[in-house]
Amino acid sequence: KQKTKPGTGPLRSLEFGVSFLAPSPHMELLASCPRSRLSLWGGWAPPPSHSRDLRPLPQDDGVCLSMEGGAAATTPAALPYYVAFSQLLGLTLVAMTGAWLGLYRGGIAWESDLQFNAHPLCMVIGLIFLQGNALLVYRVFRNEAKRTTKVLHGLLHIFALVIALVGLVAVFDYHRKKGYADLYSLHSWCGILVFVLYFVQWLVGFSFFLFPGASFSLRSRYRPQHIFFGATIFLLSVGTALLGLKEALLFNLGGKYSAFEPEGVLANVLGLLLVCFGGAVLYILTRADWKRPSQAEEQALSMDFKTLTEGDSPGSQ
């Protein structure tokens, strides 16, 4: 009931509430745009005129806050095209791997000499295609809840790990039946290294980011290492697949490989697809302006019981 000018005196906080309740075409812009006079954490500067005349400041970051405090980021114009291109490469890679095994290697059957052929197909599907897509989850689902995106990321890695394990069992079981030596080639050494690193990476990532217990500060310190090793393991997976493809061609074709046999040409195209898919995924991952923007809810989701007892908070980091 005090008579004071808008935006001054003790009614400042009251006017803040009224400006949200008063029907005005500028309400939504004020509540949604981060460059307006409304701050996410409550810092608010009074406007120079009446609340009905509020104007948002120019917006240049492509992010708007909702009434609930979440963030809705605009998707970069080129990102969907690069993601679609990577998926086209990945699906073509899987299909061509199956075509190579079906046309020139006799297909796949577990209880026969064709059991070995399950190995390259499982590795391409698991450690190349699914692992690459798991890495892209945070670029594709930019505005989904962080918890949902995190679970999807972990599930894709689980599927990739299980399928890769089937591929490992296939090749070891085939060697045992045939009496062949194990783990003597560079491809086999790199393959075991990649699988062990991949399993450890998933296990540590689950412990830090999905299983409750790690504090917010500990997660923040480990996140750069998790991202680096994720990209490195994916790159090693592509390189190991190229080694295995070359090894298979030398064993199966021998001297005929240099005569441009159709199988050799098809396998060479398959190798180029491996390189292109790996390059497309890594390019999308390394574009800084395509990273998933932070959302207000992520800080709340990151605070678990251990974080609170340690006295950490997102705002203190």
Automatic annotation (TrEMBL):
Co-factor(s): heme b
Any Gene Ontology CC annotation: chromaffin granule membrane
Localization terms from the record: Cytoplasmic vesicle, Secretory vesicle, Chromaffin granule membrane
Transmembrane portions of the chain: 81-103, 123-141, 153-172, 192-214, 226-245, 265-285
UniProt entry tagged with the keyword Cytoplasm: no
Membrane topology: Multi-pass membrane protein
Key words of the record: Cytoplasmic vesicle, Electron transport, Heme, Iron, Membrane, Metal-binding, Translocase, Transmembrane, Transmembrane helix, Transport
Function: Transmembrane reductase that uses ascorbate as an electron donor in the cytoplasm and transfers electrons across membranes to reduce monodehydro-L-ascorbate radical in the lumen of secretory vesicles. It is therefore involved the regeneration and homeostasis within secretory vesicles of ascorbate which in turn provides reducing equivalents needed to support the activity of intravesicular enzymes.
Reactions it catalyzes: monodehydro-L-ascorbate radical(out) + L-ascorbate(in) = monodehydro-L-ascorbate radical(in) + L-ascorbate(out)
GO biological process: ascorbate homeostasis; intracellular iron ion homeostasis
Cross-referenced InterPro entries: CYB561/CYBRD1-like, Cyt_b561/ferric_Rdtase_TM
SMART domains from the UniProt entry: B561
Organism of origin: Pan paniscus (Pygmy chimpanzee)
Cytochrome b561 domain sequence ranges: 85-286
Name by which UniProt lists this protein: Transmembrane ascorbate-dependent reductase CYB561
CDD domains: Cyt_b561_CYB561
Annotated GO MF terms: metal ion binding; transmembrane monodehydroascorbate reductase activity
Gene3D superfamilies from the UniProt entry: 1.20.120.1770
Secreted in keyword set: no
